[in-house]
Amino acid sequence: MKRDISITVLVTNTVFGPKFKAEHGLSLWIEYGGKRILFDTGQSNLLFSNAGLLDVDLTKADAVILSHGHYDHTGGLNRFLKIVPDARVYLHPKALDRKFSQKDGRIREIGMQSSTRHTLLERVREKTAVETERPTVVFPGVTVTGQIPRISEFEHYSGDFYLDRPCRTEDSLMDDQAMVLDLDNGAVVVLGCCHAGIINTLQYIRTITSKRISAVIGGMHLSNASESRVKKTVSFLNDFNIEMMAPMHCTGFSASVALKNAFRSEFVECPVGYRLHLPL
To answer: Which residues span the domain enclosing 123?
Structure first.
């Protein structure tokens, strides 16, 4: 059976046209096989106004998937769940941890809002939220990876993330996960921030699906990556024979340029307001 995917960008760091607004965050609206999925919810409630401008009816969502527990991916969740209370939530249990960052001596809390955490804990108890430590089927053809093994020698932990305010306990961000959509001609990989590393993520997805990876869409967390790491990442990505490369959010300008130079015709820019139609 032929399957089509529509992916609409509700929130990312750049915009398409003057009527939309951007923020540091990510939220995607995905229509696949008769199901509607909200992937992440941005930093604030911005997704709702952008969704209205794009004629996206969020009340029709069947599920919401959280890539991880940072504020810029969970900010609109509380309001969304009030509007769409029947939508099932999929998240790694460690997304509920309190999370902090320390840069230049400044400590910030960067996890989800306490009210959102409370709502999700209630949903876990009520079985209306699904914890995804392992690969989990959301709908036929839609899988969440769960925890991603870290095996690449160059995609190392950044050291800026912690689980406590004094910043003594490192957060290795094991809650980071991706979504895999099954098409006739391959698998479409949707990323939130890819804290696990994009090569780790794609190599793991190869082990849980029989399909080749045809498209990679979303944040790749390369904004602060060294030039050496970016070059190694591009080199490894070339081995996957990807037909669509659509970096967003935290990929960063320099890494996006490197990916554009490497993939050229396969490269797609996806600002707020952009709508992708697949298969390729």
So the answer is: 5-278
Residue 105's nearest CA partner among 166, 25, 169, 37 is 166
Q: What is the DSSP letter of 26?
A: -
pTM above 0.90, yes or no: yes
Number of domains forming the structure of the chain: 1
CA dihedral 164, 165, 170, 174 (to 10 degrees): 60
The SS3 of residue 100 is strand
Q: How many CA atoms lie within 13 A of 255 on its CB side?
A: 25
Give the Cβ contact number of residue 173 at 10 Å: 23
* Structure tokens that stand for 233 in this block: 């990442």
CA distance 134 to 148: 9
d(Cα 190, Cα 167) in Å, to the nearest integer? Answer: 30
Q: Output the tens digit of pLDDT for each of the chain's 280 residues.
A: 456 799 999 999 999 888 999 999 999 999 999 999 999 999 999 999 999 999 999 999 999 999 999 999 999 999 999 999 999 999 999 999 999 999 888 999 999 999 999 999 999 999 999 999 999 999 999 999 999 999 998 897 666 899 999 999 999 999 999 999 999 889 999 999 999 999 999 999 999 998 999 999 999 999 989 999 999 999 999 999 999 999 999 999 999 999 999 999 999 999 999 999 987 5
Pairing of strands 100-103, 106-109: antiparallel
**Residue 22 belongs to a domain with what CATH number?**
3.60.15.10
